[in-house]
Write a structure and sequence with these properties.
The complex is a heterodimer.
Chain A lengths: L1 E6 L9 E8 L2 E9 L5 H5 L7 H5 L3
Antiparallel strand pairs in A: 1-2, 2-3
Chain B lengths: L6 H7 L4 H14 L6 H11 L4 E6 L5 H7 L6 H8 L1 E5 L7 H14 L3 E5 L2 E2 L8 E2 L2 E2 H10 L3 E5 H6 L12 E2 L10 E4 L6 H14 L12 H4 L10 H5 L10 H5 L17 H4 L8 H4 L42 H30 L1
Parallel strand pairs in B: 1-2, 1-3, 3-7, 7-9
Antiparallel strand pairs in B: 4-8, 5-6
The chains are: A alpha+beta, B alpha/beta.
Chain lengths: 60, 361
């Protein structure tokens, strides 16, 4: 008998994470991890002064 | 950990001495720019205050402000989080996860009257899909939590105006809390990250005076954001003397000269960093040798970090007379010195008046 478990949010970590798991006969058959937050660092940093990159990237 | 215990009772249980407690109250009076006599009032209020329930929401954030919170030592994090605040919901440090975590939030919201602290921006593009927690968008969660809260405190640049995620082209439509929520008292504690001493002081003010501190037109407390960094900078003397760092690691940099030419935004930045500093009062960016990036200013990410910022208000030192004036003066020099003497006379007058005031006390 398959059962689906969702844990969202995963706490005590930095950032937002969702875990879904499909359980079959008491064992995890399949699992999915999703990061549920997006800011677009790669898009915003394009074209900027490279000397500033460290200031921005350290905020990931 | 009973919620009915007063803070003083909690501190006693944790072995915090009365002396340490009063020291903390004095520091808070200082940070809040209150007269020292207010220390007793703060102590009385904290002794009797019940811990307010707090919901800490994290949206589009880097958890940097949470890191700042975890490094609080005035009081230490355990005292701040567990004794003064009843942190009912905080994703990064709470024990429950998943449904249990969301239940803590729902129970607190149902009860009402809690303080809400928001860290991170709120994306509104594409129905808010760029930040979801427990299957719900940040936008939906914020609106629900704001409906029943006593007040909102935003921490960091992102919850203030959108911060880094809102920097053009702002791909997710990131916004600050004040652009979304109206009709609820909001106080903004920007910074990237926030300085946790300012959060502690704001909470202490709220508990002592039962209201949020006085704020400027951007909703930032005046006690923390009322003074220009440049005017209180320990390197200001070098600016006035024309002693500037010209390249990283040059002689001036080693001597601790002014970082203006390296892009320091101190002349347009307002925060109390030079006074209260960071990391247990150890240091702050300019003391460490890097210019200020004006992280408590709206849209500061759009200012080139390493280009000098235009200074609009020229400062008196441009008209200071030379210590040893040239023997033959041009009429222009004489005029400038005349003006400077006038300024000096004005300053002397002001000093005399202040001394008079002291005598009257």
């Amino acid at each position: 008998m398959a059962q689906k478990i969702v844990i969202d949010p995963i706490t005590r970590i930095e950032g937002h994470l969702r875990i879904e798991a499909r359980v079959e006969d008491g064992r995890i058959a399949e699992a999915w991890a999703s990061s549920t937050m997006f800011r677009g660092f790669e898009i915003i940093m394009k074209g900027r002064d490279p000397r500033e990159a460290w200031l921005m990237a350290q905020r990931i | 950990m009973s919620p009915t215990m007063s803070i003083a009772e909690e501190l006693a249980v944790r072995g915090i001495t009365r002396r340490e407690f009063l020291k903390f109250c004095t520091i808070m009076a200082g940070v809040l720019a209150l007269p020292v006599e207010q220390t007793a009032k703060i102590a009385r209020a904290l002794e009797t205050a019940r811990r307010p329930a707090v919901v800490w929401l994290e949206f589009q954030d880097c958890a940097g402000c949470t890191e700042s919170l975890l490094r609080a030592n005035r009081p230490s994090v355990a005292e701040l989080v567990l004794d003064i605040l009843s942190l009912n919901y905080h994703e990064t440090i709470m024990a429950p996860a998943g449904h249990a975590a969301e239940k803590s939030l729902q129970d607190t919201v149902k009860e009402g009257g809690y303080l809400t602290i928001v860290e991170g921006s709120i994306p509104v593009n594409d129905d808010g899909v760029y930040c979801c927690i427990g299957g719900r968008s940040a936008l939906e969660i914020l609106k629900e939590v704001a409906a029943n809260t006593a007040a909102i405190i935003t921490v960091g640049a992102c919850a203030f105006y959108g911060g880094w995620p809102a920097t053009p082209p702002n791909p997710t439509g990131a916004k600050g809390v004040k652009e979304i929520i109206t009709g609820v008292p909001i106080v903004n504690l920007p910074g990237c990250p926030l300085n946790v001493d300012n959060l502690t002081a704001t909470v202490v003010h709220y508990l002592t005076f039962k209201k949020l501190p006085a704020v400027d037109d951007l909703g930032r407390p005046l006690f923390a954001y009322g003074r220009r960094i440049h005017d209180n900078c320990e390197r200001r003397g070098h600016f006035d003397a024309g002693e500037f760092v010209e390249a990283w690691g040059d002689e001036g940099h080693r001597q601790g000269w002014c970082l203006y030419k390296m892009g320091c935004k101190g002349p347009v930045a307002f925060q109390n960093c030079p006074a209260i500093r960071w990391n247990e009062g150890t240091s702050w960016p300019v003391a460490a040798g890097h210019g200020c990036i004006a992280c408590a200013t709206p849209n500061f990410w759009e200012m080139p970090a390493y280009e000098p910022v235009p200074i609009h208000a020229l400062t008196p030192p441009t008209t200071y007379p030379e210590v040893e004036p040239a023997k033959e003066m041009s009429p222009i020099t004489a005029g400038v010195i005349g003006a400077a003497v006038g300024v000096a006379a004005g300053v002397a007058g002001a000093v005399a008046v202040s001394q008079l005031a002291k005598k009257e006390e």
